[in-house]
Amino acid sequence: MVDIQKDTGPHSKCHFSHSLLPTYIDPHNVSTKKKPFSTFNSIPFSHTLDLVLPSEIYSLIQDKLENDMATKIQYARVHMKLGEILQGDFFTEYIKQGNIMMLSEGRSHVDNVIFLYEGVLRLELDRPTYERCGLQGVSIEDGGRKHQKARWVVEYDLRQPSMVHGKKGFGRLEWACKNVLDQSLTWLFYNFSPTSRESLKAEQEPIKAFAPFIKEAKMEKDMLENSLIPDLRVGDLEDLCAREQDDALDLLELLGLIALESPRILATDHTDAFISRYESPTLHRPLVKKDLVHVRFRGFIPPQFVRELFLLIRSGGLKVPRQDHDGAGGTASEEENRWFSLSANGFGGQRSYTVMQWAGRETLCWEIEQ
C-alpha cells in the first residue's frame, strides 16, 4: 500500500499490486474475484474511462472498437421519486426479474445519495434524514469530526423473497419513501439487458412512463506521436515492483499524463525548466519514442463494459506467438513489451483505478481511495 497524502484534509491511499491473470479466462463466465476483474467491480459506475495503448496494437482492434464498443453504452437520464422505483412494472421487470443500475443526483458525503446496483438499494443519508426515515443502517466516515456520526448508510437487497409488498421490512422502506424520501430526483439509468437498446428506443420498456432522455456514451480518440516512454519489458516488472514505491508511482504518473495528453511527454517538447521540470521516468531502462493512442469514453459506464473492453484488447491485440507460450497462458519471452492501460474514475471522486496489462499474464493495478 502506497500513501499519497496532502498537508491538509483527508489522506488519499493508493493500493498497488502486481498479479498474474488466470491460466484460462472464459469470456462468457469471467471470475470477478481475481485482479484485475475485482478492480473493475470496485467502482459500480464510472463517468470517465481512459484507454492508452501503442498505435500498432490499436490498429489491430480498431474496427471492433469503433464499430462495436463505441456505441455499446446507452443509458438514460430520468426524473423519478424513490417510491416509484419500488412500484409496478418498473420494480418487477427491472429489479426482481431483470438487472439495472441507477444513480441519483447529489454529492457523495455531502448530499443524500441513492444508488441501485445488482439488486441492492443503497441509501447514503445525513443524520437528520436517517433519523426521520426510521430505517436500520450503519454509520460511515465522512471526513468530518472523527467521533461524531454524521452520515449513515442503509442497504436493502431488493431481490430477497421478503422484499415484496405486504412484508414488514419492505413496508418500512415504503413508508420512508412516502413520508421522508418523497422528493423527485434526477437519476442515471442503465439496463444490462442486451435487448434494451432496441426496446428503449421503441418505448416498450416500463421507464417510458417517466419520459427518459436517451443518451449514449461518447468516445474520443487522439494520437500522441513521438511520446517518450521507458522501454519496459515483461522481465523488468518483478524488479520494478521490488524496488521502492517511487518507481510504481512514477509509472502511474506517466500513464496519467498520457491520459491528459500532456505535451510534457512528447519528444518534441522543449518547455522552459522554470515552468515545468517534468521528464518521462526511465525506470532503469532507456527512453524510446513511441506513437500512442488515447481513447476516452464519457458517460454512465458499468464494470461489465470495462471487462468486455479489457478482454477485447487482450485477445485481439496481445496475442502471444505459439513459440513463446509458457504452457500456462502467458509468455516465456522476457523481452515482450506490448501493453495497454485502462483508467476509470467513479462518480463523486472517491475512487479511481488504473490497470496496466502486458502481453501474457502480467498485470499491474493501482487502486486509489480519496
Automatic annotation (TrEMBL):
Domain of life, per lineage: Eukaryota
One Gene Ontology molecular-function label: ribonuclease MRP activity
Gene Ontology CC terms: multimeric ribonuclease P complex; ribonuclease MRP complex
InterPro entries associated with the record: RNase_P_Rpp40
Listed GO biological process terms: endonucleolytic cleavage in ITS1 to separate SSU-rRNA from 5.8S rRNA and LSU-rRNA from tricistronic rRNA transcript (SSU-rRNA, 5.8S rRNA, LSU-rRNA); tRNA 5'-leader removal
Protein name in the entry: Uncharacterized protein
Organism per entry: Aaosphaeria arxii CBS 175.79
Lineage: Eukaryota, Fungi, Dikarya, Ascomycota, Pezizomycotina
